[in-house]
Sequence to fold (250 residues):
Amino acid sequence: MLARRIIPCLDVAGGRVVKGVHFAALRDAGDPVEQAARYDAEGADELVFLDISASPEARRTTLEMVGRVAEAIFVPFTVGGGIRAVADAGAALRAGADKIAVNTAAVRDPDLVPRLAESFGSQCVVAAVDVKRSDGRSTVMVNGGREATPLEAVEWIRRLEALGAGEILLTSMDRDGTGEGYDLPLVRAASAAVGIPVIASGGAGRLEHLAEAFEAGAHGVLAATIFHYQGSSLPEARAFLRARGYPVRP
Fold:
């Protein structure tokens, strides 16, 4: 069985790590380089850096910050936010990223996904999918969660796999920052629909929530609030999950 991944997330805006609730009411969570170095030292399996204001501000990813974070860590590093073309992805990779995440740009131009896969390999392409439930439907959201699309989440995830994405970063906007746990029905449906890894995101408030996401089929769990503010450490999370039989790194 593949080892399950515990992945701290650095949402970055204005040069600072931030965290909100439902993608809003952002509060400061520290310096990106310092936070990244701390998580690396604690034994994170990977890190995700999302420049969350890049798409709404119609700008490219802050590569200078990406480079500084990359120099401070030794674990795989995914960068997203503002990547709209193969050239943008290449610049992020040259700055130190190991993988790139695309969301809004993939919805606007689905052919971007196979172009990225052909240029850098599917293992390098993370398709980020932000989801909001409305009238019993799981709607794909873009532009930092500000804009609804006609896309249904699981159908879009299936298409992303067919287009060449190597994994799915699945975020529930309804659960984001709430500490109420992941959207398990969504994680379960997405994980059953594709053969590529699904990373659950949005809602972790207790270590039990990480185990619940793995039980629902997630290959990895993305978390921010639980590690940024609530005093849980990565070693504690790994020990908790190992004790429950989940294959995580020692």
